Amino acid sequence: MLFRPISVLVSVGLFAQAALAALMPGQVVTELGHLASLSGNVNTVLSGVTTDAGTHALTVHPQTVVKDFQTIINQINGFVTAVQATPPFSDDEASPVDDKLADVILMSTLVGKHSIFAQFALTVRIASTLRPLDSSLESLSFALIDLLPTRKDHVDEAKDKFSASTAAASTKYDQFCIPSPLYPVVAPVCGGN
């Protein structure tokens, strides 16, 4: 757990300096790797959420997910500022950055855990962080399109995947749900927005 605050501090320090100067391709790859690691941490937390999880775990995990999403949003926003201050990369410089986009983890695990969180009325806080996360990912995508003009098609493809992933999660977590007295055999009933 100590790693997360230290890594955030290091990244903030790097991007406070980077905002004043253009980023190098290696720095962009490193930051995309850091974002992939943070999103992987969210998936790790979510893997501990099961139908057998106790009340304490079900209370702590959503708070951790929300905190981690807020960390990711802050990281992305700082990164976008630095990327926007960087002139476009050549095709050779863009290649490793383009390859690193595939490492960013999507939200299928979060979508899959919806019924557990819905059963215990824990979806609202998660839903409230998905909107700003989607907005930050979209800003990052547009900044990367400007940074990697020769890889625009691939960045557009990644942007579409990010958008579809966050839209699926938002759709699920924005639903109104009625807990099931027969849970986990019968899932909560959810619908509408």
Automatic annotation (TrEMBL):
Protein name: Cell wall galactomannoprotein
Signal peptide: 1-21
Keywords (A to Z) from UniProt: Signal
Species whose genome carries this gene: Hebeloma cylindrosporum
